[in-house]
Amino acid sequence: MTARDAVRRVGVLVAVLAALGLLVALGVTWLRRGAEVATMPPPPPPPPDGVVVLSPTAQANAGVVVAPAATTVWVERLQAPGVLALDETRTARIGSLVDGTAVEVSVQVGDRVEAGQALALLHSPIVHEAWAAYRKAIAERKRATTDLSYAVQAAERVRRLYADKAASLQEVQKADVDRVAAEQGLDMAKTEVRRSEEVLEHYGITSGEDPTGESGEQIPVRSPLAAAVLERQVTTGTAVTSGMPLFVVSDLSTLWALAEVDETALPRVKVGMPVEIRVAAYPDEPFGGSIIFVGDTLDPKTRRVSVRCTVPNADGRLKPQMYATLLLEEGAQRTVLSVPTAAVQELDGTSVVFVTDRGGTFRRRDVVLGRVVDDAVEIVSGLQAGEPIAVAGSFVLKSELLKAFAPED
User: Is the pTM of this model over 0.70?
Assistant: First the structure.
């Protein structure tokens, strides 16, 4: 054996010894870890299905609040969907009285106008005829006045002559007849003047002064009430015809709420009943109203009857065509078990609440819901009065419950 071979054998031996030492060290480490694992307490079992466990600190961080379910007294209400509409008693749809042309339009949609305010001016040839008839009537009245004055003087003169035996009784009687005829002629002339004035007033023109130009021949289109301009169908230069719609104005300080109620509820719906109206724009604020009309006929398709309510709207927050929910108080009272709406969650299509033993354990409880009033919901079944539940932070409990069933990556 050469020296080189001896060195190789020594190297192989050293490598083998090193490998054995490493294996021994690994075995010892494994045995120690096994001993440690054997001495560790077993992990706690997972909570059963539908149960969430949270420590007091975790509950505080998650905003979980516990309170007992309680009973309360609710007034029975009839709920009906509806829509807000214009109060037709405070709405005017203004049309043209004559054929003509719009020479001026002075308002825009959204403007507030006063009663009697001119919205537009129309020019129409028909005004010429109205003024001509008025002037003719004035002239006829003047002539009739003169005729009456002459007839009165003639009658007085004949009577004096008759007293002096210079006139016959027949002449006196004829003079009296002429005087009466003159009085009747003046009355007819005055009536014709008044008729011609009313024609001008019908067109919105004052007959106090005879016009001296085109300004007196323009017909104003006036608003009959203080209101807001909702529609404008005319612009300057538009040719209009008699009856053509020009403007829609409405006093929005009062609106109507229109709804339909089922025929089975009709005996409980009366004119004058107070109504609570809710709209999506202000979900937390009720608006008051009252029933002013209950329909006389039933819709044969829906088996419902129309109900009309008046709703004060002085601040203008309610708008026509808003969808609304009408709640009619029927007067009867009922004791119900209710919880805050925030306490109810939905799992697998089922409404649930979380009942606790106040030790940090929350159990899912399926419930059946009833009516919702403000921020409370009625519990028809599934829960007893006095049971402690999570009235706030229930969404966190729902999330923790869903985590337990979520697949691991």
Answer: no
